[in-house]
Predict the structure.
Amino acid sequence: MKLSVLDQAPISRGQSPEETLQHSLELAQWTEQLGYQRYWVAEHHNTNGLASSSPEIMMTRIASVTKTIRVGSGGVLLPQFSPYKIAENFKTLEAFFPNRIDLGVGRSPGGSQLTRSALTDNQNKPLSEFPRQLADLQGFLHNTMPREHEFRLVKAGPRIDHFPPIWLLGLSERGAKTAASQGVGFVFGHFIKPDNGERVLETYRENFKPSVTSDQPKTIVCIFVVCAETGEKAEELALTQDKWLLNVGKGADTKVPSIQEVLNKEFSEEELAAIKQNRKRCIVGTPEKVKKELLSLQKLYQTDEFMIITNIHDFEAKKESYRLIAKAFQP
């Protein structure tokens, strides 16, 4: 099984954005040493709790301090930007770091309507344009625009002969069909919506059409994981992620709270029910438990790669969680 990392650059309470971004560099170097395949950074806007607002810049810095791990976006918000500009950004990254760059894109609007308007300078495009934008992105990236396309004479630079693979992040059969019809990789967000994933991935594989990006279907499943030497310790660490997810769901403060802050909190029955529901998006436990549950999901989803996201308060405990997971899968 392949293991990878998704980093949203979550800011822990008491930590600055600058410290958080430095932690992303350290975590990328650490997980590279542990043998993780990819390190992807998310794109989030207008939030005080996530420092990952510019994945391309983060990717440049991360790739410059690592040597072998693939570095990607998880993912660029394609509806908000020009496919041409994204193609040029990622061709430039690919030129600097050959065969190490992944181009993950998502259909998310990127936040509130006001935030989206600010991102697009009030030039909002309907989300129904997404399949066309994805096709244009692939055309600009590989210089394969159809002869009848209005931008067929516009070439994305630098004009290199190796290209980053495109991955579509999705949750639904609609997203799976879009990825399949255009022959790009598909990343299922179990960490957002753990329901119906088996059918979503089946839909992708059943409808896949080879393309310049890939000649066969490729899948990754992204999931929250918190791992520690004992189940009790893992549960304690996961409390901070539980409270963070609760806050995110309410649209509240999105900085990751400390363990002490969570222990001092009295949760309502409604909040406890929400936490229980959110745990369906997570695996929490010892290395043995984590391995067992990931192998079970691997069989269910028929995938050979999991992307791990761990949004807990203690950075050293986060590093240890990734170490224990990697060790559990060593031969």
